[in-house]
Amino acid sequence: MTVPHIPRGPVMADIAALRLTGEEKQRLLDPAVGGVILFRRNFQNIVQLKELTAEIKALRTPGLIIAVDHEGGRVQRFIEGFTRLPAMNVLGQIWDKEGASAAETAAGQVGRVLATELSACGIDLSFTPVLDLDWGNCPVIGNRSFHRNPEAVARLALALQKGLEESGMKSCGKHFPGHGFVEGDSHLVLPEDGRSLPELEAADLIPFLIMSREGMAAVMPAHVVYPQVDTKPAGFSEIWLKQILRRDIGFKGVIFSDDLTMEGACGAGGIKERARLSFEAGCDIVLVCNRPDLVDELRDGFIIPDNPDLAGRWQYMANTLGSAAAQTVMQTEDFQAAQAFVAGLASPQDTAGGVKVGEAF
């Protein structure tokens, strides 16, 4: 059977269960689609996950990019057979108690374990790290944040990024320009952050600026409005994405929208309008999760926006280690020691009483 050559389109979709249905295969062969995001419902065990990712990759060439939210703590989609990753504020606690060096070493090990285990299963990308500051206001962020201090967040994220990159995986900083100050959960409402741009530049934007300078591969904007800067949510805002992120900060990587089915995005209109606004604002790729009907609605008559950088940016997100090499690494004593170290950082406190993020944990 000849595998069709279909350039990756600017839509990332999802699937319902543990294997592809015939309908899903046809959806994923659409030129509008370029990637797939997996969730907990798509995971039974490691053998099944490897079969699923291989099935997805075999559909077309170049292969669809496969991503997952696999941060640690409340946001770890695959559990059985994977190292339980700590919430990122555990690394911030190490920063406070044991110093920056110990915390950065731990963050690097978390990144290495996270990326190697996913790479071994055919996953290209985890949407991590969270660069939001922990202002103590936002339950949906909460312990997903490394720290309140922007320097600590930046340095821990850089260490995590180094661990990811050494294991074949790129980083995606989120949620630009910062979701940690607002109380609302953008999965459920459209939050507003009333601070001025100078106030944001003095705190929340610092990790994004530092990470951009240090090779962060991707950014995901927040479904949050910052009315002193723009009346549109950041993910629909040319001011935030084209002017501040691209021009002023100098970010040259991939911009993924956050899920366009979240309540924070729904006020912009139907799915076609949400996607149009995202692309016009500067997003390269839009996520449409948990609503295959909306993916189909978007695909109907879809015209791929003119983006000469899209193919290169998609390819830049592809895993560079590979499943076989990652599995070899996992057999080494050094890596198994890293797994034990990282597992030792995690505890039931990481998920106790926390707000679920998209799925139960």
How would you describe this structure to a colleague?
With 361 residues, this protein is α/β, with parallel strands linked by helices. It is 40% helix and 12% strand. It has 14 helices and twelve strands. An eight-stranded parallel beta sheet has the order 6-3-2-1-12-11-8-7. Strands 4-5 form a two-stranded antiparallel sheet. Strand 2, helix 2 (46-57) and strand 3 form a beta-alpha-beta unit. Helix 4 packs parallel to helix 5, helix 4 crosses helix 14 (333-345) and helix 5 runs parallel beside helix 7 (205-213). The longest helix is centred in the N-terminal third of the chain and has 20 residues, at 100-119. The mean pLDDT is 94.
Q: Can you give keywords for this protein?
A:
eight-stranded parallel β-sheet, alpha/beta, single chain, two-stranded antiparallel ribbon, 361 residues, globular
Task: Give the neighbour order of strands across the main sheet.
Answer: 6-3-2-1-12-11-8-7
Alpha carbon gyration radius: 19 Å
Which regions are unreliable across 5 or more consecutive residues at pLDDT < 50?
none
Percentage of residues assigned to helices? 25-40%
Give a summary of the structure in a few sentences.
By secondary structure, the protein is of the alpha/beta class. It is built from 14 helices and twelve strands.
